[in-house]
Amino acid sequence: MTGEECFDVWAPAAASWSEWAKPSLFAHMGPPAEWSAAATEAPGGPDAFWIPDAGGRTAVIVDLPGETSVTFGLALARRGYRPVPVYNTSLGPSPVVNAAGIAQALIAGATVIRGFGLRRDASPAFLLDSERMSPPSPPQPGKFDNRWLVFPQDFPSAARLQAGGVSDILLVHGERGLQDDLAHVLLRWQQAGIRMIAADARENGRIRELQVQPPSMFRRAWYRALTIARLRRNNAGGFGAVIPVASSGRYG
Prior knowledge:
This protein is α/β, with parallel strands linked by helices. It has one domain. Helices cover 27% and strands 14% of the residues. Strand 5 (168-173), helix 7 and strand 6 form a beta-alpha-beta unit.
């Protein structure tokens, strides 16, 4: 399976929320032979019995570490949700973020999700890597810095969500909780009248009300530019580039 074929499975053109899936990681997947093993190892997933029914008015954001977010997305697909991968990163040598693990899970998961027969208008579950800005491997010279962030432009507007029948957003998170970049997205939705709820995936379904507080530089015109300036864009899409090794020497 090529990266393009995998993307088409996760984000079919006819599905209502596919335009918010990020193609950058799929575009870097390389020749099919490199991923043949991953395609035969479909990941298992948690039991998402506690998630509200997909036929209701709830959309989900899964913000869990690495491939765990993919496996949780598959669990939601079994419940009728449409997982939407929003991994705006790329693959490279000595990466800071383990994007290869996510890519392998996506390829393996494509085999699974293709058989679910999800509805075209199935409720969305947006998939994020919670380690996108705080990876286990710190960025340093010679490393491939593929850290990334999300912005409000990466998600549907509140009006689009409401037009699609969404009245509640459920954030499924781990130990990091609600991260600052995602707060910029959720607060806009909250201010438009969409209800915010959250659950720690480690607590097996204790859903609570979430009141999003204004993050730093909320709605400031220069927020996006200043934030992107800390990251490295990839010419082929998404974030990712090698951190230069500083040269040393003396002249004179």
